[in-house]
Amino acid sequence: MRVVLGVSGGIAAYKACSVLRLLTEAGHEVTVVPTRAALRFVGAPTWEALSGRPVSAEVWDDVPQVPHVRLGQQADLVLVAPATADLLARAAHGLADDLLTSTLLTARCPVVLAPAMHTEMWTHPATVDNVRTLRDRGVHVIEPASGRLTGADTGPGRLPEPEEIVEAALAAVGRSPAPTGATGDVDLAGRHVVVTAGGTREPLDPVRFLGNRSSGKQGYAVAAEAARRGARVTLVSANAQLAAPAGCDVVDVQTALDLERAVTGLVQEGDVDAVVMAAAVADFRPAHYAEAKIKKTHGAGDESAPTIELVRNPDILAGLVRRRDETGGRDPYLVGFAAETGDGTGDVLSLARAKLERKGCDLLVANEVGADKTFGQDHTTVHLLDPGADEDEVVTVGPATKAHVAEAIWDHVAPLLP
Ligand code: CTP
Fold this sequence. Notes:
Elements: E1 2-7, H1 16-25, E2 29-34, H2 36-41, H3 44-51, H4 67-74, E3 77-83, H5 85-92, H6 99-106, E4 111-115, H7 119-123, H8 125-136, E5 140-141, E6 145-148, E7 154-158, H9 162-172, E8 192-198, E9 202-205, E10 208-210, H10 217-228, E11 232-238, E12 248-253, H11 256-268, E13 274-277, E14 284-286, E15 310-312, H12 316-327, E16 333-340, H13 348-359, E17 363-368, E18 379-385, E19 395-401, H14 402-413
Bound molecules: cytidine-5'-triphosphate.
């Protein structure tokens, strides 16, 4: 594969030497395109020696070869590591004032950016907007790691480890690096999967919402595993305070209605092979949103409490099933999750079986929840229920990590995709 490795001018440029090594050792043909600032950290001879190819930051070198157009057009992958705040800004605004930004404009292959900068720069609204713009255009912007920065300070903004960067970059082009999973398959290459994660929040007034205890960890693990297996992954994330998994496009949502819009919009684009509804979607929302904060008292001696009227939210999963039956069009495989505590009417499995029938999805992943179980925990036990499966055909996984559960889900689903 032809890879352009862009390097912009941050102290983490030295780590790009390891990224380059990993790529060349995996047999890829890598052209390094540093920015002028990057060359102040690591010089051209280093890049040339490690890549075995000439290196330039300028559009003025080797002009008859038109490198500012050719490199981007011919690349199978453009990876920029580290991507500084300045590089993100120039890329977001379509500037082309050096060889790297010109290459970014001409590339039609997957583009992966691995930002590294100080926390203040990463969280500045200008950078946040630039990252959003780039992601909206389909650029994979890897979430930076948290930890020790250049000086004594710590926080998000650190360049992820070279192995993680290479893994995310190869996942973006549907190739698996050294496989780590049970099967090592890239059995989702060429697939587009949508995974929802986290818990929706239904606003009551500008400061309050009705929410739930879902951390988003299981959905994030399902998304990460799908990306590792080569899928294009859109992760619709409801209020999860988690770093974006490598190689996934993240769409942030707040409410059940936002989540419904995002998921149905993606499915209507017509290229979705599977939807995994791991998000905890609020079944109800306040009927009225108060524009101003609801006050405790309205006068001296007023001890009354408000009554909050609720209305039903749409059942998103059931809606996807219905729409599929209506249109008979592209048929995404639909996976539901059942968070059950068990109650007077049945145990977790019997409630899950009833829910599978009610929802009409293709697979239900049932897990037992409670104050100390599953929510926010790293281990869980789940049961995978297919429609029509007998008691002894239910697959039970765990207690296992959420990553292992994610692996088991895709082991089950991948062979069933049309
Ligand atoms: N779900 C959904 N839309 C909703 C509620 C839930 O799409 N309004 C999805 C969830 O993402 C999950 C599955 O439906 O995949 C089951 O969610 P759960 O909360 O366990 O079930 P409910 O349908 O809400 O049923 P109940 O509250 O009666 O248990």
